[in-house]
Amino acid sequence: MARVRDGINGGTLGTWIKLSSPESVEIMAYAGFDFVVIDLEHTTLNLGAASTHIAMARALGVDPLVRVPDHGLSVIQRVLDAGAAGVVVPHVDTVQQARAVVRATCFPPRGDRGSGGTSRAGRWGLLPRADYLEYGNEQALCVVQLESEEAIRKTREILALDGVGAAFVGTADLSMSMGVAAGSDEVDRLATSALTAAAAAGVPIGTASATSDQARAALARGYDYVVVSNDTSILASGGRAIVNALKAPVAERVGR
């Protein structure tokens, strides 16, 4: 957790987890990623798979975040009780939505999350209740995804809320919501404004990158952390590279 919350300003690197096998998390941990984001928004992963992934990541010293599918309290509460270091919440467009998301991650009176101390987050009932509640309120990271022009223009107000631990600029959905290309000047200007607002608020801000070159550029631009590629793309690109490197020589040999 420390590398996500405290080390995030040092250019912390993560990757998305989309496959159901826990070995995917294991491989990314051994590869050296600081954290993983288990993706429940754009995959068919269920809560059982997410729980197994969380356990694997924690066992290997990698911080497990979970991107939840929506703003619902139920899933947020359950993945936090499963031991997630925090949640990444998509499409947080307004201050009201951000406030509701924060309340979903915190226990009363700060929020609406129910107590489940006999879960992994409570060390299966072995952690003192006070420590379980304190960890949930003070350490569980709430990351808001800013993916619309409305959200970007409200960045200052959203990040001023107590409990918002980090921001994430989703440039792909941002560009689609505006009807422009991902690399357009309009998207670039909005991303710059979000970076400026986050710096002023002292809140870490990150983004996603498909390649290491894009990630390097994002960090140079001022992003505090980057989620680079994902397990499926890393597997696919590695396989494709091998095929492309060998198919032509094999075809030439067969043709001789």
UniProtKB/TrEMBL annotation:
The keyword Metal-binding applies. InterPro entries: Aldolase/citrate-lyase_domain, HpcH-HpaI_aldolase, Pyrv/PenolPyrv_kinase-like_dom, Pyrv_kinase-like_dom_sf. Keywords: Lyase, Metal-binding. The keyword Lyase applies. Signal peptide: none annotated. One of its GO terms (cellular component) is cytoplasm. GO terms for molecular function: aldehyde-lyase activity; metal ion binding. Residues 14-233 form the HpcH/HpaI aldolase/citrate lyase domain. Belongs to the HpcH/HpaI aldolase family. This is 2-dehydro-3-deoxyglucarate aldolase/4-hydroxy-2-oxoheptanedioate aldolase. It comes from Streptomyces griseoaurantiacus.
